[in-house]
Amino acid sequence: MPRTKKTPTLTAPVPSATTAGPPIVAIIGRPNVGKSTLFNRMLGKRTAIVDDVPGVTRDRNYADAIYRNRPFRLVDTGGLDPSASEGMLALIKRQSELAIAEADILILLMDGRTGLTTPDQEVVRLLRGAPKPLFVVINKIDTPKVETLVADFYQLGIDTLYPISAEHGIGVSELLDAIYPLLPDPEENPEQTTMPRIAVVGRPNGRMSASPRW
Ligand code: GDP
Ligand code: MG
User: What is the mean pLDDT of residues 2-12?
Assistant: First the structure.
């Protein structure tokens, strides 16, 4: 149920930001907007996880997955949640810079219940200039009754917003289906999608290192 004001312009598959491995899809957003919930939900029934690191479950920062036969690497930037000494804007800036540098496709998640915040506006400003497809997703739209909460976010001037409930799995298939055309088809681009990448596995719930390698 994505809300579109204009036809989205993103249609071409994106190459991987790095030389090998599947395209990287990064989930960005303030703490508590539901990044980890969405991460797990996107790796749900319809998306197969393809890496098989023993003992590593879904409680981590990234996963290699396949959606409708197209591989991608999903990254939860929650490992970059702020320390006591770092303010929200510094966090958002750091998350955004890393995502712009390392990811191929960006998912910016916001909290529909909180409404649009200044850090949200800042991150949109930062990400918008990046030559990367950006999906702006409004979470915690759990029932049709609260769909009106999405209206606040149109002041961002983003053409298409994706209202979802990560917790209840509403709108997540629509988001995956919107991302899907941007993922390279493994049959057409075998070299882009089949090369194994060296896995860098974060400690479960642990903070990522100062310079995480996605
Ligand atoms: P993160 O800090 O961005 O990774 O956020 P989490 O995934 O840890 O979620 C933060 C809080 O929001 C948790 O209490 C979740 O249960 C809650 N949450 C996540 N998704 C939803 C949703 O779709 N609806 C509601 N009502 N709560 C949600
Ligand atoms: Mg998290």
Answer: 46
